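Chapter summary example.
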Amino acid sequence: METDDDEFDWKTRKIFSRSENPLRLFPTKRKQIHKIVLKYLVFFISLSLAAALVGVITQHDFLPYFTEHARELSKHRTKGEEVEFLSIHDIEKFPHKDLRLPKDLKPLNYKLNLRVNLTTLKYNGVVKIRMACDQTTRYVILHCGDLDVTNVSVTTAESSRGRGLLLKRILAFKRHQQLCIELREDLRAGGVYYVTLEFKSKISDRLEGFYKSSYTTETGMKRSVAF
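The structure predicted for these 227 residues follows.
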């Protein structure tokens, strides 16, 4: 025999039974919403980081560029060593008078590392030149163009892992686009030496040296290149 309490309990179970299926849908919808929100969040964070990176590259010069050869420059420096960097305008004060390089040293090969920024139109790099000495000399004469040479070292094969040769001064004669590295000791005939230079400059807008150019892709986009 059913009582009023039994009837109430039966109606209560029936109400919860009818509403059971709709309630099960809510967790699934919540998961879908969470996934969508997460995707948009990741997208906006990535976009913000990309915009910040572009701003840094555009407004500031690139970060210091360290390579194997750049590390050698500091390794071969003697503690307390001071080297004069001078710009010469009078040819009489420059050890070499000819437009052509002297034949005392003959380049054998070189390794070059460049870091180019087509946004700021600047670049820097490090070059390591292997040279054979045909005649004893105390001067290393190189073509430098418009390069701003910031660091130099000269080593032998024996001293490549230790201290480099002592430098006296570095002279730049812009009229001939030449750089003179004067040492405190001679480079001996028959020896092999390594000259390492760190440099920086601007990409030229003229068709000479390291210059800028551009081309148009098949889709009509204009791209910049440097040669």
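To summarize the output: The helical segments are 4-18, 20-59, 68-75.
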